[in-house]
Amino acid sequence: MMVEKREDEMEASAAAIPPPFSSQIPSTFPLPGGFFDADGGDKGSVGFLELLGLRDLHQSPFLFELPRPTSAVEPPPATSDPPRLPPPAESSDTANFPATPSSISSSSTEAAVNAIKPAASSITNGDEGEHAKTNRTNKEEEKKKKGQKRQREPRFAFKTRSEVDHLEDGYRWRKYGQKAVKNSPYPRSYYRCTSAACGVKKRVERSSDDPAVVVTTYEGQHTHPSPVLARGAHQPLPPPPLVLSEPRPPPLGFGFPSSVRSKDVHLPLLGSYLPPPPLDFRPMTAPQPLMLTSDPTTAVATSGDPRHGCNRTAEVSIRDHGLLQDLIPSKIRKEEEL
DNA sequence: CGCCTTTGACCAGCGC
DNA sequence: GCGCTGGTCAAAGGCG
To answer: Torsions phi, psi of A244, nearest 5?
Structure first.
């Protein structure tokens, strides 16, 4: 319910564009009422990875440092959006957020800090093996201890246009549940990172509005390297984008284990707010992150209405810039192209 | 055999 | 307090 509401909100905000994370998030992702019109018609062979911009990422790293067009491009809808932004407990966290899209997730920073701890503690308690068995008990205890409603990990919704529900992102996931959701003919699937110590979860559901759109919501932060990476299965990467040389790793990597960040040239910056780097080059059905927005607790990368996309241009765009294309508001891109 | 998905049941949070 | 809904558990079964 609440979640639904929230997601409605976030989708709404996605549609309304100006992301709710007004003040503290310098809107590295301005989304000035524009769609990432990388949506194309004929991109069935475009991999998630590619879409996420593995290509030519280095060409425009600066794009991630888009000058906070915050005020200029996207007036914060502060009035319409409840001030749900967590009080910057992020003095450090947010500060750590480089002027990159990772800022987007900074809105969830507080939640991250607070929420991840319990999970981690339960793990570090040592009874990892029994964890599953005593899970409920532990949960109850934790709740009792907390004396408050359970805290959710920061979430990051990611809309992609894809025929497949479960997008490869370089990590291994185990499905642990599926639920029919209200107001949607499509079930929601729940996945958990298979890594024992990693509590990252993700939900995958199809948009009821547009069945072609898959909404993937990541929750939590990977505490381990991508299994794919670890295996060194793929080293297909272009020279690390300039940004990578930044000594300062994204603090709150959604899906990015800190240990991997430096290696993850793939999505150096995206990694901090996007799903883990899709390292598996399995041909996807053209998942397309098209638009970003966010909620205090949920940053959202959504795909815009396909009708807004310019198919041909999109194809070219993907070729030219990769994911950046998707992440950078078309408006800005146009300016660049001019 | 290990890992994964499926699926029904259970639980907690929230609104009324 | 009750009912609804989302989220999770865990047994069972499938697959490589």
So the answer is: -60, -30
Q: Is the CB of A117 under 7 A from strand B?
A: no
pLDDT grade for A166, boundaries at 50, 70 and 90: confident
> Residue A201: beta bridge partners?
A192, A219
Please give the nucleotide, over all strands, whose C1' is closest to the CA of residue A183: C5
Mean pLDDT to the nearest integer, A149-171: 71
- For A176-244, the DSSP string reads EEEEE-TT-SSEEEEEEESSTT---EEEEEE-SS-TTEEEEEEES---S--HHHHHT----PPSPPGGG
Distance A97 CA to C4 C1' (A): 39
State pTM to two decimals: 0.52
Whether the beta carbon of A141 falls within 7 A of nucleic chain B: the reply is no
- Element (DSSP H or E) covering residue A167: none
Which one-letter amino acid corresponds to residue A285? T
Query: In 3D, which of A269, A234, A262 has the Cα closest to residue A62?
Result: A269
Does at least one atom of strand B sit less than 7 Å from the CB of A143? yes
* Maximum separation of any 2 CA atoms in chain A, in Å: 61
Instruction: Give yes or no for residue A293 having a pLDDT over 50.
Output: no
Topology annotation, domain A164-200+207-227: N-terminal domain of TfIIb (2.20.25)
**A window 190-229: Cβ near strand B (< 7 A):** 191, 194
Q: Round and report the angstrom distance from CA (A234) to C1' (C3).
A: 51
Domain boundaries, chain A: 164-200+207-227
Q: What angle do CA A267, A30, A154 make, to 5 degrees?
A: 60
What pLDDT band is residue A124 in, cutting at 50, 70 and 90? very low
Strand B: positions under 7 A of a protein C-beta atom: 3-9, 11-15
The answer to whether some atom of strand B lies closer than 7 Å to the beta carbon of A84 is no
